[in-house]
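Structure (tokenized):
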């Protein structure tokens, strides 16, 4: 596949992936805004601990097969279908076995995560495991075929489920059960639509030989997922040991709130980039060029967004969560500020390792991250919530340093070529930040904050247009936005 064609496919895939995320971000913030006012931080704390178990089990149900089906080169369609069938039946069997284990040991698990007596909640929430087994492999086939347009329609339907399930239940019950049932309902809808619309359908085929071949690649993906889970959830476990359920809810919801905002960019770009890099894994120069250009395009949006989250942290917290979440504001601001560095110089590198088949590097990075994160958290958590979130945020900088070293040592990646691509974005970002801080000195009124945000967006894009118009155009085009089409639509 020629590089120009691949870039075009990547841009189209990113465009539909971006549209999907934009659509979801129009619905999900509204849902979260209402839920944060209907439910207490304690309720979110309960769900955070339950999700520790469910998300850990999901690592084994997927087992890395989804990425294998996207990354691997198959001889023909029949071989692809056979591998897909093996992956599907393996995932389904593992998910059922894991759910049965959770069912029999639910109370012990509830005590382990600090919620004794809530074993039934864990059992019901874990029903998403066999349900997701139906959709996981289907999604891999859609992504491999660059069919992100169909995924957009599927996601559009599934994100509307909380409007009709979660919110009414939250209003009636004022309980965490609304979140559990809403998540399960969304998973069911997603699985049904993906299966019905998919060109591939499961068949009774299985091969131990093919399972071994897939597992030789997927093993490191699974190990990476386990270490990533530990990075994402072991801190929640530590917070639950030293602090109350209230602070568990504040802690986890703060991170989720920022990640939902940032994922408007990251969720729309990570998978199209992984698919593109997988096709370029044998062309080093083209791969580096694709990765550098893509990171520049991501940074173009993430850098000003993260600065904005930090400056308007109180406003964002009040709008998205409400007045009962005031203690989350500073953590949201700091986590958002460091997200730009962590994502652009750290997170996407895992996709790069997996695309070129060196999945063990992702695991190694995550393992090192855990080794210094755990003692830092055990030291900081007993000292109070403020010390905890500052320490946890600082871990992201260490993560970036480790990631850059790994890229340089293990795959001989020219790090300075990547940094050079990012430097032109800084002047416009700094200018926007200065304008925002000056505007904040005028007033802190919420209506004025709305006006200021739009002024900052205008300043950023205008300055970028003046300083580096080429970078502006390339960033928009790389992420699937066709400027000519935008101009044409404006005239029509």
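Design, position by position:
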């Amino acid at each position: 596949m020629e590089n120009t064609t691949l870039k075009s496919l990547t841009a189209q895939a990113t465009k539909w992936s971006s549209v999907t995320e934009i659509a979801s971000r129009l619905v999900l913030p509204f849902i979260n805004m209402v839920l944060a006012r209907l439910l207490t931080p304690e309720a979110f704390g309960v769900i955070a601990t339950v999700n520790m178990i469910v998300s850990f089990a999901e690592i084994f149900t997927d087992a890395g097969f989804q990425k294998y089906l996207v990354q691997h080169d198959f001889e023909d369609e029949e071989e692809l279908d056979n591998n897909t069938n093996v992956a599907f039946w393996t995932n389904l069997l593992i998910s059922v076995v894991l759910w049965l284990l959770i069912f029999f040991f639910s109370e012990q698990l509830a005590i382990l995560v600090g919620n004794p007596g809530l074993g039934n909640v864990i059992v019901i929430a874990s029903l998403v495991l066999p349900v997701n087994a139906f959709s996981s492999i289907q999604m891999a086939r859609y992504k491999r075929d660059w069919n992100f347009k169909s995924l957009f329609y599927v996601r559009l339907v599934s994100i509307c489920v909380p409007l009709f399930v979660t919110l009414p239940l939250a209003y009636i019950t004022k309980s965490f059960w609304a979140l559990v049932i809403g998540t399960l309902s969304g998973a069911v809808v997603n699985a049904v639509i993906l299966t019905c619309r998919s060109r591939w359908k499961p068949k009774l085929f299985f091969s131990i030989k093919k399972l071994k071949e897939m597992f030789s690649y997927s093993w490191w993906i699974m190990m990476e997922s386990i270490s990533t889970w530990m990075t994402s959830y072991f801190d929640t476990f530590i917070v639950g040991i030293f602090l109350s359920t209230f602070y568990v809810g504040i802690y986890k919801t703060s991170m989720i709130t920022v990640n939902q905002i940032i994922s408007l960019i990251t969720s729309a770009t990570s998978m199209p980039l992984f698919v593109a890099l997988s096709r370029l894994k044998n062309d080093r120069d083209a791969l580096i060029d694709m990765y550098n250009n893509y990171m520049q395009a991501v940074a173009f949006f993430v850098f000003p967004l993260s600065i904005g989250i930090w400056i308007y942290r109180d406003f964002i917290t009040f709008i998205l969560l409400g007045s009962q979440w005031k203690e989350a504001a500073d953590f949201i601001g700091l986590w958002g500020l460091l997200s730009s560095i962590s994502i652009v110089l750290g997170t996407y590198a895992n996709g790069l390792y997996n695309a070129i088949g060196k999945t063990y590097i992702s695991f190694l990075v995550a393992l090192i991250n855990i080794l210094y994160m755990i003692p830092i958290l055990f030291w900081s958590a007993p000292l109070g919530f403020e010390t905890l979130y500052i320490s946890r945020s600082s871990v992201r900088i260490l993560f970036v340093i480790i990631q850059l070293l790994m890229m340089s040592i293990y795959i001989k990646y020219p790090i300075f070529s990547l940094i050079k691509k990012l430097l032109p974005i800084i002047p416009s970002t700094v200018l926007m930040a200065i304008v925002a801080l000056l505007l904040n000195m005028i007033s802190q009124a919420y209506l004025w904050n709305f006006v200021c945000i739009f002024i900052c967006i205008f300043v950023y894009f205008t300055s970028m247009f003046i300083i580096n118009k080429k970078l502006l155009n390339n960033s928009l085009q790389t992420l699937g936005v066709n400027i000519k089409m935008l101009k044409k639509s404006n005239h029509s």
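Reviewer-requested clarification: Confidence is low (pLDDT under 50) at residues 481-492. The two ends are 35 Å apart (CA to CA).
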